[in-house]
Structure formats: structure tokens, C-alpha cells
Amino acid sequence: MPGTIAVGVDGTDHSRAAADWAAAEAARRGMELCLVHASVRRPRAVVPAEDAAARERWAAGVLRDAGERAAKEFPELTVTTRQVAADPVPALIAEAAGADLLVLGSRGHGTVVGHLLGSVGLHVLRQATGPVVVVRGPRDDDRWGSGRYADGPADDVTTGEVVVGVQDLSERVAPVLDFAFAAAERLGTRLRAVRAWTVPPVFAWSPGSLWLAGDDEGMGERERRSLDEILRPWRERHPAVDVAVHVETGSAAQVLLTHGAGAALVVVGRRLPGRHGIHRLGPVALAALHHAPGPVAVVPHP
């Protein structure tokens, strides 16, 4: 089966950008595109019948326009639409569970001015069990190689790297690397694996740490070698992907943002809820979602 990429649309420029990006990604993957609009249907005692009917017609128009844009740009693409009478958060979480990928705009209706990610997006990202890509809307001075959102549907992305943050050096990071390597291979672009490290203060003054810092390799080189070892199986499975490794001291979020500024896609991980069932986004994921200028993929992992 071809699989499905779902995208939430609400008529904003941000959701338009998300739909354009999702259409291009579905075409690259040979998948179906499902356009979803979710809103709560109010009782007629609260909302006059004519207003409710007008809202439904407006939503249908939003879906129709997005579908026509996708079909015009990618005639071979199978496009479906779904209008859901439900709160957007649970509706989109359900879409994420049933699709191979969910795509969202970075902001929607009712977002506080100045915030780069809306509350609906944050709630969905915290609870989705599958990968979610957040796409930034158009800016006059912002092209970041991910689509001509101001005047037409998204272009295929063939320039700019896929940048993946790798802070966890265990097998738990596998879903994140699977996603990042597959994306770089589809786009025909370089993958840059970024890792930040610091010397723990308690450890910094020990004789062992001083020896490590002063030996021929140094601690930075040891970190690089550890990252290379983690990446080795994916390099073997994706020999066509050019891989660059960057290891740097400093804040993980700042290092990732520095190298992801011109990226076609930034990929970060999110830990699935543990035994306490707490849904959260880590500081690196939040920083990327709020400050990276291009699309950001958040991939859940154990």
C-alpha cells in the first residue's frame, strides 16, 4: 500500500505552506495526501444555523482550494479531503496515529502574536505517536529553500542539508536516524549529524578529565568517534547519502540551530512517555520548533 501523509488545513498562510510541503513530500514518497480540517460543531442553540452552515461551507472551500493546488502541481498525486467535526487536537492526534506522517503549519487561528508555534501544534506534538513535521509560513525575506509559499505551491527541495540532532548515543535514537537518512536520500542532499557536548562540572576537575582533555585525541574527538559509531549502520544502509558529522561544545539547542539555519529539514527526537505517562517536548525540540526558519520534523522514540 502506498501510505498516507496527512496535513491539517485551516485557511491560514501557515497551513497553506504546510499543505504545499506535504504535497511535495507525498509526491516524493509515492503516497496519498489527505487534507484534514477539524473544528468543533457547536449546538444550534449556541450558534445560529445559518452561521454554522456558513462555517461548514468555508471549511469545505478551504479543503477544496488546498486540494486543487496540490492536484495542479502534482497531477499524479492522489488527494483526499476530510472535514472532521471535532476538537482539532484529538482529531489531529488520531490522524497522526493513522498516517505515515502528519504535517502542520507553525501557527493557526487564534495564536498569540509573536509565538512561532500555536497551542494546537504544541498539544499535538506532545501526544502524537508518529512523526510530525511543522512548516513555517511565508515571509517576504524568507525562502529557506523549502518552497515558493508566497506565490505558488512548494518546489521539490534539492538544496540545503537535512540536519539531525543526535544527543542520545543509544539504540533509542534509531527512529530519528531512520527518518533523517530516508529524508536526505529522497531529497538527494547531504545529511549533517550534529552533536553538542560539555564537560560536567563535577567531572571537570578530576585527574581523569584533565588527562582526557590533554591526551592526543581529546574529549571532542572521542565524542566524534562515538557519533560516527552510532551512525555507521545507517551509513551502510544508505550509501548514497553524503554524511557530515559536526561535534561542538556548547548548548545542544544553540549548536543545532546554528547548523540548521539554512537546512531543508531539521530532525529532532522526542521521548515517548515513560512509566509516569508524562507527555513533553524536550528543550532542543522546543528550540528548533520556535526558532528554526525551515521545516522541523519531530520523531518520537522510546
UniProtKB/TrEMBL annotation:
InterPro entries assigned: Rossmann-like_a/b/a_fold, Universal_stress_UspA, UspA
Positions of the UspA domain: 3-136, 162-300
Family matches, as Pfam families: Usp
Source species of the chain: Streptomyces mobaraensis
Domain of life: Bacteria
Name assigned to this protein: Universal stress protein
Family per record: Belongs to the universal stress protein A family.
